[in-house]
Design a protein that fits this description.
Chains A, B: InterPro entries: NifX-assoc_nitrogen_fix. The structure is a homodimer of 159-residue chains. Chain A is 51% helix and 13% strand. Chain A is α+β, with helices and mostly antiparallel strands. In chain A, strand 2 and strand 3 (114-121) form a beta hairpin.
């Protein structure tokens, strides 16, 4: 029996799940699953917590401390960006995050003496993406931008 | 009445208190003193908590969470390094600290796209200096080293 073509959203999800950044993210989530509770879960299932719709996002209050789980996801996301940069350039890009308990702070990704990414964050509470496609796109863009910075300053990245 | 010459230690303290880095550090401590409880204190008195003798240092356990006050001093120290770099170069050097509640972590000072200082820390619990002179020396060395990095990569520091 031939498999019928999926809806565009399903095809987009499949493309997203095949992206190197998303695969790296799923691997990192599995690595955190110390007791193997999610061994049977697919990558798409592991990533469901990263997906929040516009409606869900609006319902998350940004007053008060963010959920520790969202801080962990935020951390894993930028760690996956760093690892994907490393896979493509051979240079370790280590994330440094200074997030206050209230969810305000800064994320830096550095390679050697070079800052390849820097962002001030104010709403970690609502960290998430509307679809798997958006997640894949955001990760790939961060990786591409960081690699462009490394290519602009190759000696500093290796200093 | 002429002031008698002090002991060498006292003279060393006076020299330390006149150093730009130490003055900046004292100013930052005053800035944190919201209720003006220490308005009457001299710079030397404000800095006493930064001074721990070798004996005191050994008595501080490095197991368990560091004292929140020591984390605050650690933070103020590197902020003062950043401000002194700014005063000398005109470039903002912002500190990013990622210290776990157990006192392990990383400190970065960045200027533009340049990492001017990076350190892995393991014993924030024992953060302090044997004398005011040592404090002044450590701060001045960090500032000088960071400025040497900025001079080596002037375009990256302004990127």
């Amino acid at each position: 029996m031939s498999v019928p073509a999926g809806t565009p959203a399903v095809n987009e999800d499949e493309a997203a799940l095949a992206a190197p950044f998303v695969k790296c993210l799923a691997r990192l989530i599995r690595a955190q699953d110390t007791y193997g509770l999610q061994d049977g879960a697919s990558d798409a299932e592991l990533l469901t917590h990263f997906i929040i719709t516009e409606q869900q996002r609006r319902e998350i209050p940004i007053i008060g401390d963010p959920d520790p789980d969202v801080l962990l996801r935020f951390n894993i996301f930028y760690t996956a960006v760093g690892l994907t940069i490393e896979a493509r350039t051979g240079l370790v890009a280590s994330p440094t995050m200074m997030i206050s308990h209230e969810g305000f702070g800064r994320v830096l990704l550095t390679t050697g003496r070079l800052v390849v990414f820097s962002k001030t964050v104010r709403d970690v509470h609502r960290f998430g993406f509307a679809t798997l496609g958006k997640l894949a796109e955001a990760g790939a863009k961060l990786v591409d931008d960081a690699i462009a910075v490394i290519e602009a300053y190759p000696d500093v990245a290796r200093a």
